[in-house]
Amino acid sequence: MIRIRRSATTAALTLTAVATAVLGLAGAASAHVTVNPEEATQGGYGRFAFRVPNESDTASTTKIEVVLPENAPVGSVSTMPVAGWTVQVEKRKVDPPIEVHGSQLTEAVSKLTWTAAAGGGVKPGEFQEFPVSMGPLPQADKMVFKVLQTYSDGNVSRWIEEPTPGQEEPENPAPVLTLTAASASASPAASAPAAASDGDDDSGSGTATAFGVAGLIAGLAGLILGGLAFLRTRREPTPKP
Question: 175: which DSSP letter?
Answer without folding.
Answer: P
